[in-house]
Task: structure prediction
Amino acid sequence: MIDSHCHLDPSTYGGDEGVDAVVARAVAAGVTHMLSVGSGYGFDSAARAVAVARRHANVRASVGLHPHDAKDFTDARFADLLDMSQLPEVLALGEMGLDFHYDSSPRDTQRAVFRAQLREARRRQVPVIIHDRESGGETLRILDDESAWDTGVLFHCYTGNLAMMEQIVARGGWISIPGIVTFETAGEMAEVAARVPDDRLLVETDAPFLTPVPHRGKKNEPAYVAHTLAKVAALRGRPVAEMESLTVANTRRFFRWASS
Ligand SMILES: [Zn+2]
Ligand SMILES: [Zn+2]
Result:
């Protein structure tokens, strides 16, 4: 299995030793690779994700400016981020997008920082990881407006409805299903997880939050992506092993992640 989206931040897991233990438990659970997202835990989370990827050949990183942190954008920080995005350990830009639920940054700042990252991703032909919460479809409109779809667009922790999933897929986008699908309250998400086309489906933990059943109450970690995968397989009426190889292949294709 691959966890396509987690935050292996030493500040969350008790330092480097804590992260090493999390990675070891993931491998023991059959999660051979993980993508650690350096965005959303303050501007410095990008450099921390890169450092973890440097120490673990089976961990790759992305770097980006989360809408929560968009208010801290400066030209110098953006230049640093773009330099990091060229490193061999870094496979994508993001997560980036709009979050009108928390509104941790002013909306106009969120929009501007999102667009700036999309333009650089297009210029560099780097895939992007999208965070979208309660934007009322504006994230899609900005992606259209910036002609962003060709470089590869992944909606992570997808909790939108079926109609929007279909619009994303029709534009060539990809969908990653989080552990929320294991919750009794999953609702329409269960239907989405059943219906994302085979060639656009990924799974993730978004660790350290959103721990799947049956580990609710514990800190989330990549090992638990197995529960999300099993639930997705059950919802689709397919063998887990088949869904495992399919989601691994999709994750490698989306991130252009060479085997190692
Ligand atoms: Zn997110
Ligand atoms: Zn995340």
In short: Residues 77 and 83 are 10 Å apart (CA to CA). The first strand starts at residue 2 and ends at 6.
